[in-house]
Amino acid sequence: MTTAETAVAQLATPPRSGRITTPQGIELFYDERGPVDGTPLLFIMGLSAQMVFWPAPLLDQLAAQGFRVIRFDNRDVGLSTHLRAPIRHSPLAAIARSMLGLKLTVPYTLHDMVDDTCALLDALGIDRAHLIGASMGGMIGQLMAATRPERVLSLTSIMSGTNSRWLPPPKPAALKGLVAPRVRIENREQYIEFGRQMMRTIGGRLPQGDALMEQMFGESWERGLHPRGIRQQFMAILATGDLTRYVKKIRCPVTVIHGSVDPLIRPAGGRASARHIPGAKLVMIPNMGHDMPESLLPRIAQLIEETARRA
Length: 311
Hints:
Blueprint: H1 3-12, E1 16-21, E2 27-33, E3 40-44, H2 56-63, E4 68-72, H3 91-99, H4 110-123, E5 129-134, H5 136-147, E6 152-158, H6 172-179, H7 188-202, H8 210-223, H9 227-240, H10 244-247, E7 254-259, H11 267-276, E8 281-285, H12 297-310
Parallel strand pairs: 3-4, 3-5, 5-6, 6-7, 7-8
Antiparallel strand pairs: 1-2, 2-4
């Protein structure tokens, strides 16, 4: 069987899925596609988003190139461990304390989520992987590349930033829609409609791909929601603070992809990451917001592959 035939055969079967437990007792659900002996690409999703928000066409395209493509639910979303720690601060109070440089009492930080990511690689028998992170996932990827360089072959950071308090803040409507939505949701159809409205707020000016978006929000509803987890992940971002001192230490190949009209992590966030990471390549995509429109997936896949080949 040729390499191309093998890739097609891999994609003809459902993704392989499983669950691992970290040394800290956190269960992480994951799936993977592509050849088991392929070079691993590990996808890390952002705030409140389950792993199903990594679009299947993007993953399939990379698996067809011979990569071992892995995605997982972060703690507090999807089918991974849901935590119920005491909430010490409201979102507004937490933002204010973060802006003033005051300490936050939180259940965990992004450093703990880096530990989760490394534990997943350990459980899968992977020494080093190419990381692809979106939004909060990009921050986790940057932190991991800086503090665990021996585990990271390359990094593609999408719609993320350095988390510096000196960067332009999110537009209020975008932040509110993601962290503190005032919507009563009782069924799958209502959640899909909520998703449409949210993507109109945080997305850009490019067509989303309605069928794909509905599929991802529908699957997310069916797998189960954890609203408290959204707040806890948000607190983790705030408590971790500025990543600038970390990202300056990154030495692997890095591509920073950012939308020119992102209302949540503003374009200055992507520029800051690229500016402070030695040798990073910055790709600003016109009219892209805090989203990955279906029309851009081939280009994003190409950029991920190019970054991996640089390593």
